[in-house]
Amino acid sequence: MPTLHLHNTLTGRKDVFTPIDPERVTMYVCGPTVYNYVHIGNARPVVAFDVLFRLLQRLYPNVVYARNITDIDDKIITAARDNGEPIEALTGRFAEAFADDMAALGALPPSIVPHATDHVGDMVALISTLIDKGHAYAAEGHVLFAVQTMPDYGALSRRSLDDMLAGARVEVAPYKRYAGDFVLWKPSNEDQPGWDSPWGRGRPGWHIECTAMIARHLGPLIDIHGGGADLIFPHHENEIAQGSCAHGTDYVRYWLHNGYINIDGEKMSKSLGNFRLVRDLLGHFPGEVLRFALLSAHYRSPLNFSEELLNQARATLDGLYYALLGRGDAVSAEADYQLPDDHPVLAALCDDLNTPEAISALHRLASELNKADAADKPRRKAELLAAANLMGLLQQDAESWFHQGKAGSLDADAIEALIAERTAAKSARDFARADAIRAELEAADVILEDTREGTRWTRK
Ligand SMILES: Nc1ncnc2c1ncn2[C@@H]1O[C@H](COP(=O)(O)OP(=O)(O)OP(=O)(O)O)[C@@H](O)[C@H]1O
Ligand SMILES: [Zn+2]
């Protein structure tokens, strides 16, 4: 079996991945707070960890992947009030929209999608354990985690308590014994949703939600925990404090964090208003184009988002799908094909999910496929499909790829532009691209004729 290396935020280096129990590999990724539609930055952890989920399933017989839905939060309460609708109606709608958007990006459904509001009993029990063990205290309807009771607090983000107090927006509240203590439980007034607890009617803090759902569904110690780099502090630091102090374990073996999707060098975020919703982008680009764009950079590197990035992704996919056109004869070869353990695409992904390298390997496979003898094509097509499937790419029928959203929809300017691009591709000897453009035009019922005076076109 190939060796999987993963960059672990806890150790600061690429470590060899060794599961606690190879018969049941466990992974958790923090999911969305469901009060609006997600932007393409929020989609990055979903797509990156979907590739890891696919890879782990290739390597191990049983992988349990949980990604939660945060359906209780102050932003949710505010949004529901602003809309004048019940909280459950709002969260139900946006949880469903999230599932649809992520399916459009080709992300597999996780094994478990726990909702925070279904686990409040588990959270109350966990908080009680932390109080019993002397790591938490109740004060004025709140329960706080006492960070000074944990010697290793700050190990993940490599911050001392002094750094945290200086650098972070910690709330100095009268009920806190120490300014860095964080909330496990807070009181709800009559207008706010709440649950009965030993500390009065209230609701959980955000960090305890993930720790309780992990313990319930995956166990007291899990293999992999992922999320965006903005979650390292305080969210994941606080999860470690809760989980390790309650269970007496290390809580998580491998911490993985994705880099940011940026716009003009700045993190895409709701607060800055520089975001593009997945839902809107899907009106202009197939989901696979968005997925490919997200995978075109290594998951830990920053990736600048632009229209150009998406156009590039579409053109590259055109070239790869072109290699798969008209070769439906490979169906039986495909069913029999097993990706070998030393396959270059598998090797690239096992190197901390090196998707740019894996995509280069797909290009090499496609160009060999374009040049191969007819007899050899079915096996090569099966290989390209199996390798791409590890990244959730190229799984559509190639003919339909070129037909989608195109038929009759190209105006004369768009046709002329594609013809100019094809002429340029031919003079650059990029024949695969040139042929892909011809196929794209054919799919839109445009016939090309190359003459000495240039390329003429007619509609079928
Ligand atoms: N620009 C980005 N690039 C990559 N990942 C991101 C980006 N913005 C948010 N994420 C990730 O998306 C996931 C969902 O996060 P969350 O719902 O907290 O988004 P958010 O922080 O509300 O978004 P925003 O930063 O836009 O306010 C988290 O794993 C977070 O790290
Ligand atoms: Zn979380």
From TrEMBL:
<feature type="binding site">
    <location>
        <position position="210"/>
    </location>
    <ligand>
        <name>Zn(2+)</name>
    </ligand>
</feature>
<dbReference type="InterPro" id="IPR014729">
    <property type="entry name" value="Rossmann-like_a/b/a_fold"/>
</dbReference>
<dbReference type="GO" id="GO:0004817">
    <property type="term" value="F:cysteine-tRNA ligase activity"/>
</dbReference>
<feature type="short sequence motif" description="'HIGH' region">
    <location>
        <begin position="32"/>
        <end position="42"/>
    </location>
</feature>
<dbReference type="InterPro" id="IPR024909">
    <property type="entry name" value="Cys-tRNA/MSH_ligase"/>
</dbReference>
<keyword id="KW-0963">Cytoplasm</keyword>
<feature type="binding site">
    <location>
        <position position="235"/>
    </location>
    <ligand>
        <name>Zn(2+)</name>
    </ligand>
</feature>
<keyword id="KW-0862">Zinc</keyword>
<dbReference type="Pfam" id="PF09190">
    <property type="entry name" value="DALR_2"/>
</dbReference>
<keyword id="KW-0648">Protein biosynthesis</keyword>
<feature type="domain" description="Cysteinyl-tRNA synthetase class Ia DALR">
    <location>
        <begin position="344"/>
        <end position="402"/>
    </location>
</feature>
<feature type="binding site">
    <location>
        <position position="30"/>
    </location>
    <ligand>
        <name>Zn(2+)</name>
    </ligand>
</feature>
<keyword id="KW-0479">Metal-binding</keyword>
<dbReference type="Pfam" id="PF01406">
    <property type="entry name" value="tRNA-synt_1e"/>
</dbReference>
<comment type="similarity">
    <text>Belongs to the class-I aminoacyl-tRNA synthetase family.</text>
</comment>
<dbReference type="InterPro" id="IPR009080">
    <property type="entry name" value="tRNAsynth_Ia_anticodon-bd"/>
</dbReference>
<feature type="short sequence motif" description="'KMSKS' region">
    <location>
        <begin position="267"/>
        <end position="271"/>
    </location>
</feature>
<keyword id="KW-0436">Ligase</keyword>
<keyword id="KW-0547">Nucleotide-binding</keyword>
<feature type="binding site">
    <location>
        <position position="239"/>
    </location>
    <ligand>
        <name>Zn(2+)</name>
    </ligand>
</feature>
<keyword id="KW-0067">ATP-binding</keyword>
<keyword id="KW-0030">Aminoacyl-tRNA synthetase</keyword>
<feature type="binding site">
    <location>
        <position position="270"/>
    </location>
    <ligand>
        <name>ATP</name>
    </ligand>
</feature>
<comment type="subunit">
    <text>Monomer.</text>
</comment>
<dbReference type="InterPro" id="IPR032678">
    <property type="entry name" value="tRNA-synt_1_cat_dom"/>
</dbReference>
<dbReference type="InterPro" id="IPR015803">
    <property type="entry name" value="Cys-tRNA-ligase"/>
</dbReference>
<dbReference type="InterPro" id="IPR015273">
    <property type="entry name" value="Cys-tRNA-synt_Ia_DALR"/>
</dbReference>
<protein>
    <recommendedName>
        <fullName>Cysteine--tRNA ligase</fullName>
        <ecNumber>6.1.1.16</ecNumber>
    </recommendedName>
</protein>
